[in-house]
Amino acid sequence: MNDAAIKRLIFALDVQTFAEAQEWVKRLRGQVGVFKVGKQLFTTCGPDVVRMIRASGGEVFLDLKYHDIPNTVAMATVEACRLGVRMVNVHALGGGEMMAVTAAAAAQVCREEGHPLPLLLAVTILTSSTDATLREIGIERPVTEMVPRLAKLTKDSGFAGVVASPQEVGLIRAACGPDFAIVTPGVRPATASLDDQKRVMTPGEAIRAGADYLVIGRPIAAAADPEAAAAAIVAEMATALKGR
Ligand code: C5P
């Protein structure tokens, strides 16, 4: 029963070194579904860290948030497909052509070379951005309008889903329907520290709100017993999934 919940738990490997990443993968493999490799770890370790996780039997979310001209993003995504990642992301602000060209290139390389197609995800508006941040760069629309608009563009461009705040799940579901993946960070068990996250939901609340995957880092990594913390989160997710 918990397998369905484990598949939906993404652990943020926010560490600096290959050795630390390897240690976490060893400890948490089997307890979380996917390991998220972000800009810090990828900049220090490069694709070897992705290969290490894959060789250990773990799945990878390559969280590099590509935003560039269509061909460059498409070619970077092709290489992510060759690494065998389960999820990879771009910034939806790069536009529909960037995402459509990327989706087509990913589908082609996976078909021709026999890789499983990763979930192609986009970030709509960073959760660190406010309406004032958008006005600063010439976008006069509020975040609450831009998020569903960019999610719809993501879907229409052939992508599978978005990364979003748990608070945005309802808006995105309304714009994109049930068959669209929503990955949410900003999740905190009721007993955990908020760290620098501000608008959080518990794992159960996020699943009940309609999130498909949860990204969780410090509530597991900084717990006295990380394996037990991961197991408790999975149990809470499993209970919430039963009610959906
Ligand atoms: O430790 P914590 O659970 O806050 O980790 C959440 C992870 O999700 C971090 O890697 C963070 O960079 C990422 N993230 C986030 N909020 C976003 C997008 C990504 O916390 N809006």
> What overall form do the CA principal axes indicate?
globular
Assembly type: single chain
Largest β-sheet summary: 8 strands, parallel, barrel
The CATH architecture term is Alpha-Beta Barrel
> Strands of the largest sheet, in order across it?
1-2-3-4-5-6-7-8
**Which band does the percent of strand residues land in?**
15-25%
Number of domains: 1
Give the radius of gyration. Answer: 17 Å
Describe what you observe in this structure.
This protein is an alpha/beta fold. It has one domain (2-242): TIM Barrel. It has twelve helices and eight strands. It has an eight-stranded parallel barrel, surrounded by five helices. Helix 5 links the parallel strand 3 (59-66) and strand 4 (87-91). Helix 5 (70-83) packs parallel to helix 6 (96-113) and helix 10 (203-209) runs parallel beside helix 12. The protein starts with a helix and ends with a helix. The site of cytidine-5'-monophosphate (C5P) has 15 residues, from strand 8 and helix 11. Cytidine-5'-monophosphate binds at residues 12, 14, 38, 126-127, 163, 185-186, 195, 197, 215-219.
Notable characteristics:
single chain; 244 residues; alpha/beta; TIM Barrel; 12 helices; 8 strands; binds cytidine-5'-monophosphate
Question: How are the SSEs ordered, and which strands pair?
Answer:
Elements: H1 2-7, E1 9-12, H2 18-28, E2 34-37, H3 39-45, H4 47-55, E3 59-66, H5 70-83, E4 87-91, H6 96-113, E5 119-123, H7 131-136, H8 143-156, E6 161-163, H9 169-176, E7 181-184, H10 203-209, E8 213-216, H11 218-221, H12 226-242
Parallel strand pairs: 1-2, 1-8, 2-3, 3-4, 4-5, 5-6, 6-7, 7-8
Helix pairs in contact: 5-6, 8-9, 10-12
The chain binds cytidine-5'-monophosphate.
